[in-house]
From TrEMBL, chains A, B:
Domain Enoyl reductase (ER), first and last residues per copy: 39-338
Keyword Signal: no
Protein's recorded name: Zinc-binding dehydrogenase family protein
UniProt-recorded Gene Ontology molecular function terms: oxidoreductase activity
Stored InterPro entries: ADH-like_C, ADH_N_2, ER, GroES-like_sf, MDR_fam, NAD(P)-bd_dom_sf
Keyword annotations: Oxidoreductase
One Pfam short name: ADH_zinc_N
Annotated source species: Forsythia ovata
Sections of the chain in a coiled coil: none
Keyword Metal-binding: no
SMART domains hit by this protein: PKS_ER
Length: 343, 343
């Protein structure tokens, strides 16, 4: 039986602040048998695309109170990916199938938990989109916008980290819904993309704003109905001052909060009371019954040319650490993907 | 026509921190004609009971972004009251009627806005309860608990400022709903009342707790489903650490936040994301369609002996400033009322 070398990205040990390239290590792992052992129910896959997602920072911390356990120091990093089945001991999959779901940051993975894996039906949509537009980030945008924000036509919507994997879809869905949409991002290039490619009504570079409150007042003269929050911190604090009565805040992420042990203070929560604001944290995994509707709607929008999706693809498994660390400095433009193999 | 002296409590000028007795002034106002002028649609009333409510602090600040405008310096303080109609130019009310609604802190008031006034039907419920149990605070507890928290039997409920005008009813409604209920208060006397008179399962004196997180863990080994927040600040921060997944926080007040310009920072909002928590500010005025249901339910519970209501009654209009300032140091035990006249 064929045995092959398996290149891997290893999680070195728990961190406190933001992930750095040096918190991960590229190495050649043990030789691996190219089979899914009989009776194991597992799949042997070749990983094609791996997903860099901000939530993974939480798994690098020694914190066990979250919805997903921390990584194990010295082990291969886990994450979403698009993979090709090489051998299958599961009746649901056969060699040659392309799947998306949880895999590991390595060339070949033996996947034991197969219930959440999804078979990808070949069409003209790029395979990597199944960890972005049609994967967890896209689904997060979809349920966050429609289910958590419950938008109405004409609503004034603000999206932070607006060119990111989630934000770019939120903004486009909001435009399709008839909303006025403003996004913030961290470079002028991203601001241009938001306005000229992604169809946002307005966008601004938060790094060039000394006063977030003043920046928001410039774009929302009558206040904000919906804030899709990907960052937390001082932007959230400024947004609270600019919400309309009965406004809604979907709290999707707090990527600006580098430290779990000393997060920044939010000072303007009294606005929740005086303006009857609802602020709701959510996890896409609570809405999985809507996944088929999501796929149907977003695939249709995409095929009709009503939405586009920006990706930032790093070539080669070795580029994983630098790509992942870059998420937290805003290096990526659009959804960050690692391309491991083309087929 | 009879003209009488009219004693009044005057709002002296805008404040920053908590109200002090000296921010208000007792004086004898202009002589007043004992009539509701023809064609004015107004009512002349004699005020019997006046309500001291924490939201009134907001009206003492020079801040115009709230749901209710600030008081006018030099003018009589406005608030909820129970009053007797002496003369009426409105077809809806006649002399002798007892009403509850917005009036002023004085002996006699000419009320021009009569739409929100409610006629009280005489029964064996104390008149003053119409600004407490059966008034705005009681209604706030009712809609906050049932509509905002949407409780289930068996839920673990925490109430801060639990012996106050709102909190004491929230806790009793939660017990009637089959919940486990813990309250916090600021004196050992209040803690005793919560446990022995109001039927809370547990209660603690927050002033004797060095570590709110540890205190909450003592009473909620498996976490909190519902937090009815009357105080904000560091208690809210500790609660966020102890919420269960999909928990709900009804933000009713932030009485601990003395300063609007420098409110305390809340550091643990990342829990909203990792636990899918909903945090909702609300105003009772958004739910007025439920007022008849509220009255029916709460009057029934009261008459059945299933709930009680604690009041702290100060005698005489002159006692208004001291009674109101006392709300913010926790001097009051139960709903703070000023008794101006018995009939």
């Amino acid at each position: 039986m064929a045995e092959v070398e398996n290149k891997q990205i290893i999680f070195k040990g728990y961190i406190e602040g933001n992930p750095r390239e040096t918190d991960m290590e590229f190495k050649v792992g043990k030789k691996m048998k190219m089979e899914a052992p009989k009776g194991s129910g597992s799949l042997l896959v070749k990983n094609l695309y791996l997903s860099c997602d901000p939530y993974m920072r939480g798994r690098m911390r020694n914190f066990h109170g979250s919805y997903i356990p921390p990584f194990v120091p010295g082990s291969v990093i886990e994450g979403f990916g698009v993979s090709k089945v090489l051998d299958s001991d599961s009746p649901k999959f056969k060699p040659g199938d392309i799947i998306s779901g949880f895999t590991c940051w390595e060339e070949y993975t033996l996947i034991h938990k197969t219930d959440q894996l999804r078979k990808i039906v070949a069409d003209d949509i790029p395979l990597s989109y199944h960890i972005g537009l049609l994967g967890m980030p896209g689904f997060t945008a979809y349920v966050g916008f429609y289910e958590v924000c419950k938008p109405k036509k004409g609503d004034c919507v603000f999206v932070s980290a607006a060119s990111g994997a989630v934000g770019q879809l939120v903004g486009q869905l909001a435009k399709l819904h008839g909303c006025y949409v403003v996004g913030s991002a961290g470079t002028n290039q991203k601001v241009e993309l938001l306005k000229n490619k992604l169809g946002f009504d307005e966008a601004f570079n938060y790094k060039e704003e000394a006063d977030f409150d003043a920046a928001l007042k410039r774009y929302f003269t009558n206040g904000i109905d919906i804030y899709f929050d990907n960052v937390g911190g001082s932007m959230l604090d400024a947004v609270l001052l600019n919400m309309k009565n009965h406004g809604k805040i979907a709290v999707c992420g707090m990527v600006s909060q580098q430290s779990l042990s000393q997060p920044q203070g939010i000072h303007n929560l009294f606005n929740l009371v005086i303006k009857s604001i609802t602020m709701k944290g959510f996890l896409q995994s609570d809405y999985l019954h809507l996944f088929p509707n999501f796929l149907e709607d977003v695939v249709r929008f995409y095929k009709q040319g009503k939405i586009i999706y920006l990706e930032d693809v790093n070539e080669g498994l070795e580029s994983g650490p630098v790509a992942f660390a870059g998420l937290f400095s805003g290096r990526n433009v659009g959804k960050q993907v690692i391309s491991v193999a083309r087929d």
